[in-house]
Amino acid sequence: MEKLSVFLFLISFISLIVGLISPDKFKKIFKNKEVTRKFILKVFGTASAVLFFSIGVFAGAEQKVNLDFSQPRETNKTEIVTTTELKIEQLTATTTEEVKNTTSENTKPVINEYVPKPIVKQGAVETPEDKITYYAVAGVTDGDTIKINVDGTISSYRLIGMDTPETLDPRKEVQCFGKEASNKAKELLIGKKVRIERELNYGDLDIYGRPLAYIYREDGLFYNKYMIEQGYAHEYTYKKPYKYQVEFKTAQKIAEENLRGLWSPDTCNGNTTQSASTSTTQVNETNQTTNKYYTSSHYKTKYYYPASCPGWKSLSPSYLKSFDSLEALLKVYPSRTLSPEC
After folding, report:
1. N or C: which end of the chain has fewer CB within 10 A?
2. Which UniProt keywords apply (predicted)?
3. Start-to-end Cα distance in the chain
C-alpha cells in the first residue's frame, strides 16, 4: 500500500508542477471546468498533500509490525538450560583440544616481555655516544692550528676562542712562549683522535679559508679551554661573541692569577708579543730540559713521558731513551702514546 501511495504522490506532484506552468494541458481532462492555475493548485495540491500524509501513515504502521516481529518468542526455560549446557561442553572440549595441539607444537611457552621505551628529556638534545665521530690528528702547525684527517682529507683547522704565540709567521719573529705552546699541543694531540664541534656564530671558515672548530679528545679533554687555563694561550674573541666566550675568559683569569705558562714573570709575564730571544738564559735552559721526552726501548713498552712527568724516572736506565722533541721520539717509536699518569 505504501508503494502505491508513493506512486500516486509522484504523479500528483508532477501534474501540479506541469499544471502551474501550463494549465491549458489539462483542459481535455476537465472539459466542464475552467482550468486555471488556481484550479490546478486546488486539485493536485490537495491530492499531493493527502497522498504524502498517507505515505507517512503506512510507513509507521509497517515499522510497528516489524518491531512486533523482532520481539523474541517465549522459550521454555528447560530448553534454554539444556542448550546452554550443551554449548559449554562443546566449547570446553574444543579449548582442551587446542591447548593440547599448541603444547605439542611449542614445548616452550611464549612470553611477551616488556621492553621499556627510552626516556627523552624535554629541552635536552644529546648526541648518542655511538654517533660521535672522532678523527685522527695528522699534525700540529702551532698551538692554535692543527691538521685533522677527516675521511681521508687532511685540513688545517683554526681553533676557536684561543690564540697562542706565533712560531711560523714569516712576518714575525718567534714570539715568547710560542715554542712551548706548540710543543704542548704536540704532546696533547699527536697520535690522538679528536671530536670536532662547530661555532654557529662564526660560520665554517675563517678569513684564510681554514675550518673553524672546538676539539675534544676521546678522554673528554676540551683542548681549546685547557690550553687557555694552563697558560699556553690567550682567550681570543674575533669581532663577535662565541659559545664558550665566558668560560674561556674565566679560564684565562685562572691562569693569570696562578701565574701559569705565559703569565709567569719568569717567561713572558703575559706579554707574548716580545721575541722569544729576549728570554733569560735561565728560562731557556729550563725550557730545554722541559722539552725532553723519554721512553723505554723495551719491546713491551707502550708509553712515552715528557720531562715534566716524573713517570719516566722509574724506567730502567739500561732501556731509557731521551729525545729533544716529541716528533723525534715518535719517528723512532711511532706506536708510543702518552702515559696515562701524565
Report:
1. N
2. Endonuclease, Hydrolase, Membrane, Nuclease, Transmembrane, Transmembrane helix
3. 107
Cβ within 8 Å of residue 279, ≥6 positions away: 176, 267, 268
C-alpha grid cell for residue 185? 699541543
Beta strands 153-159 and 162-163 are: unpaired
Nearest-angstrom CA–CA distance, 287 and 266: 11
Confidence of residue 115 (pLDDT cuts 50, 70, 90): very low
* pLDDT at residue 69 greater than cutoff 60: no
* pLDDT (mean) for 170-182: 89
217: exposed, middle or buried (Cβ count in 10 Å: 0-12, 13-18, 19+): middle
Q: Render pLDDT for 239-254 as a digit per residue (tens, 0 to 9).
A: 899 999 999 999 999 9
Asked if pLDDT for residue 204 goes beyond 60, the answer is: yes
Is residue 267 within 8 A of residue 176, CB to CB? The reply is yes
- The pLDDT, as a whole number, for residue 64 is 53
pLDDT of residue 124: 31
d(CA 233, CA 5) in angstroms, rounded, equals: 103
| Cell digits of residue 130 | 655511538
Name the pTM for this structure: 0.47
Catalytic amino acids?
158, 166, 210
The pLDDT tens digits for 86-95 are 555 565 555 5
The stretches of 106-231 forming alpha helices (DSSP H) are: 178-189, 223-229
- Enumerate the β-bridge partners of residue 147: 139, 156
245 within 8 A of 237, measured Cβ to Cβ? yes
| Residue 170: half-sphere exposure toward Cβ, Cα within 13 Å | 0
Cβ neighbour number for residue 29 with a 10 Å cutoff: 11
Q: Which of 227, 197, 231 is nearest to 211 (CA)?
A: 197
Please report the beta strands in the chain, taking only residues with DSSP state E, as ranges in sequence order: 135-142, 145-150, 153-159, 162-163, 193-197, 212-217, 234-235, 293-296, 303-306, 320-323, 337-338
Cα–Cα distance, 3 to 47 (Å, whole number): 16
Answer for the pair 160, 242: CB distance below 8 angstroms, yes or no: yes
